[in-house]
Amino acid sequence: MSRLVQKSPSLCTDLPLNNSDVCNKLRLLKELLKSCYGPTGRLKQVHNNIGGHVVTTSTSSVLLPALSSSQPLVNLIRSCILNHVSRFSDCGLFAAILCLTLIEEAKLSGLRRNVSIKVNKHLLGMCSSYLQEEDCGCRVVLDFCSSMNLITLTRSVIYSKPACVLAEVEALHMSKLAVQAFLLTVPCNSPGTVRLGRIVTVGVEGHPVLNSAVLTGLLVEVHDHLSLRMIKSMQTNPLRVVLFSASLAGDLSDLGDGIIEAHTGVDTDSQILDQLLEFCKHVVEDEVKLFVCQKVLHPVLQQYLRNHGVIVIDRVGVALMEPLTLLTGAQPVATLHTTIPAKAYGTVRSLSVKEFGSKTMLHLQPAAESAVCTMVVCHRNETMLSELKAVCQQAEHVLRLTLKEPSALLGGGCTETHLAAFIRNKSLNEVSQTLTAVECSQSEYLLGVEGFCRSLESVAAALQHDGGNSLTDLTHAHHWTLPADVTTENMEESLTFCGCGLTRNSPNMKWTHLNTKYPQFSPAPALRDSTVQPHVLDSFTAKLNALQVAVETANLVLDVRYVIQDTN
Amino acid sequence: MLPVERLHLDHVLQTVSVLESVVLRSFGPEGGQMLFIRDTGQAMLSRSGTKILTALRLEHPLARMVVECVLKHSAATGDGSKTFILLLASLLRMIHTTACKVPNVSHMYNSREAAVASTARRLAKKLVAFAFEELDDIFAMGVAPYGCCLSQEDYILTAQSQTNNPCVQKLLATFFHSRLGGTHSDLFSHLTSEMLINWIVRGEHPSKSLHFIYDNLPALHTPVSGFSISCSRLIEGQVIHRDFAAPCPQSDQQPVKAVILTGFLHPEVLCAGEVLQLGCEDNGTENSSWKQSIMQYSTWAESSLECAIARLRSLGVSVILSAVKQSAAALALAAQAEICIVECISEDELFLFGHLSGVSPVTDCRMIKPDDIALLTFCRPILLGSQRYVHVAFQDLDKRLIIKPCSLIICGAGEGQTDQYVCAFRDAIRMQLSTWRPIGTAASKQTSQLSKSESLHAEDQICKSLSFQQSLMGPGCVVPAGGTFELLLHHALLQHGRSVSGKADVDRFAVSQILANALLSIPKNIYSHSSRRFLETQTRLMGFINKQKHNTNLEQNLEEGIGNQHCCREINTPSEVFMLDLGLESLSCKYQLLLAVLQCVSNLLQVDTLLHINTTSHT
């Protein structure tokens, strides 16, 4: 019987941004994300209605997937930001907050949608070309001769995730480790195109963060403890390794789709096993000391190999195979009948047993220089550990991005305020040239510019959660924070450093509150004094893309005039 | 008794007006996007009329009929679905007002509504007949002279100087403006025209190359989400949307030799349906030699695999592009022999690779000939977004094919956007294809011949025009966009109406009036945000037409007898420059659109009753 169900007509919303319900939801989302932003951001607990795992987080990559909404526009923004996060691992909240604020400002300005879209796009072009300029005031060129800036960059990534619950010392320790691990993956003496190695992260629960460490080589979990006893007797250096990528459990997989009829008295299992044993004999004759199998190894074979003094590791999984080939130089074997060529074998320098908490691991040291290393991440409980592991991977990604574009942006909200001041100044000076390109009147253009700059500044202001005031100075246009309990009279004493730590309080400096009118000026780049280093840095590539994605998404949402929801 | 619903003109008008109001939101320069959420929760963005209409999932039978007509039309031309609805609504409105004005003279009808309906029906039929008989001429006389013709050289010329001949790019920019909005139209028209320059074979009709691109589009583009749209670009060669099955060794040797393989490297011992008997000794001598162990079969298979790899190695092959998944043993042996394998490549991509490299796929590696080996300048991994793909470029293309193959990378913030861009790109190619289609089919030409013999008294000018109609509206004719076509046709129709009004043919006059006035709704909606702009454009155009007429008359007086070829000349006079600001659109698409709308109107008005049938579910 056919089960044809009539399709129900779609649900339509005309001009969704004029709908107060939609606007309320967008505002709610903005407030929620704003409260998570920055190192002092508030944490969110995510739990589902069927008693699932409770996640404590403030990172966009965990938070945004949880915030699915019935409102299509919210989902649209969410998926755009998540796509950015999955490519760049950083600046997700920045992009989301900027995008939502831009939408709100465009609505407040009362401009025609097409005008706001054009102005936003024009200003985005202005921002990205300024950021790529040589004398850009908020960009710092990274110096790979010193690890100082790299550590600062990593620390900013790690420290901006309060759900890791790290003390200052711990954050510094983790960022040093992340930079160390990253440097280990860069091969030193390989000519031609450089291929970065791998960092394998191992999480250990219940240990203090300061016990985390970076080791050269690989840590492989061992399931049986029998073979570990033999390690002490192994002194021959280096050890020969074979890597097996096919299953050795005694099954036949690639004979085809035909039917096999076995008559009584024929034991195919033992036939196969005999063949496998024959094969293992060759391996033993070739003086292999470490036998690694991606899949399952037959227990009989395990026993046989162990009796002949071979250490067996099976079920390592496909994820570890690539680092293992990189480390040992072996080529995975998947054939049973052909003799293994000598070059398919790999070597390790030494084996040792490492114990981390409840885990017993085998430590494989590379024989030659290899770009594989292991990062052992320790934390007190599971949620914090999973957050910390994710953050370490993000930090690794951010560091890798610096290889493509060796620069960083000033953090702590200084880039945003600086950009806003720059845009205000530049667009006022060049107003007549741009009007033809944007096709709108001067007042419309200036309204659009004001909205854009206010949005940028409000992202900087969102870093403040403890009731403090956000200020900007009128020389460099950096971002300053005034604690809540300080009155305006003794303001000058309490301000020592700006958000990124590059400019310090000087006698003739003037401040103004963010989002108040101030006379336009051209922001001067901070003095490049080699003794003063910025305390907070953001990834250049990630932030630039986040800026672009935020403006483009906002433009997209502003451009949506009609929503059709298929309710089938 | 079945529930019967009598259809009145009002109902039809109402239904179409609802569709119009939806479509209007994304029409013209002030229009925006439509966000569509599929039943799977997936978001899709679009400004395409067909997408919007299908997304509505309408129930009303009349509305569904309209949507079907739109879909058919846009499947043929790739453009004009929003204009279709607007024109339809406006035509129905005009017919409605005209029909209501006609005094109820006959006593055959028992109600006023029936009288109106029958008048409307008659008008609609007349409209279709009118279009078939006279539209060709009116187009040739009143519209085509103000356009220009794309030529094959346009695609090539753009390669040398982008500013010199912007026709193709203008045409594309106008199209993308209507499909993606103003912010990205320049970027996309630039990318598309560059892609066309690279792909169009010189000395061949462009539509052939356009067809090739259209057919191979899935293999020619890669959507990448998570990046800004400005990262979209063209890259040399082909991107195969698979990763290397085993980590590929870096070798700098050139050229890279590759084969296309459709079969397995590892031979299958047992095919489906075959039976292997183990251990039955009384079953003849043949089997007894094999009976010892099942392992012999896999030994044989493996040694055969080794032979295949050795053969490939001896031929110097370093890349295998495989249509199927190869066994783990094959991958391991290939890796040891430093051969990279790319598995599970789709048929489309292998076809394109075969076409570009000039080799044919092999099923069995043992049968491989040196002719089957493709030479590549490189074959390397390329990271696009989260995916790693294989990027290849071909050697010696200049000798075999006179094209520069390139592949389009389309970036967007999310999947919804990249989908939208890809659809727009595909439709842009289709639109260009229909631009190259000659206007007026064989059938319509026949009718025009008939009409000529019928109305011998028709004006001389029309008769004259018919003779060189071919040259006037050849394939590739484009007219300025931004409502210019509609205003021109409006003007031409009024002129035409005036010329026939002297005769007793009242209906013909009425019909051309209806069509002319209906057409005005398009430019009115384009300039909906400021009626001043509409009037400005109209007056400018009218001034231009008058001036042009003056010139033409002079020209004709001077060189009588010489074919009226001036429509295809280069755009260089300053008076024409303003038209270029508006962009360009294809005349052939417009012509087909008009015919389709008129047919749809007459179809709609033929229906007088809806029968709702209840099908009970059978057990």
From TrEMBL, chain A:
One GO BP: cilium assembly
Protein name (database record): McKusick-Kaufman/Bardet-Biedl syndromes putative chaperonin
Organism in which the protein naturally occurs: Xyrichtys novacula
Domain of life assignment: Eukaryota
Gene Ontology MF, one: unfolded protein binding
Pfam families xref list: Cpn60_TCP1
Residue ranges of the TM segments: none
GO cellular component: cytoplasm; kinociliary basal body; nucleus
Automatic annotation (TrEMBL), chain B:
InterPro entries, per database record: BBS10, Cpn60/GroEL/TCP-1, GroEL-like_apical_dom_sf, GROEL-like_equatorial_sf
Molecular function, one GO term: ATP binding
Pfam families hit by this protein: Cpn60_TCP1
Biological-process GO terms, alphabetical: chaperone-mediated protein complex assembly
Name of the protein: Bardet-Biedl syndrome 10 protein isoform X1
Source organism per UniProt: Xyrichtys novacula
Lineage, broadest ranks: Eukaryota, Metazoa, Chordata, Craniata, Vertebrata
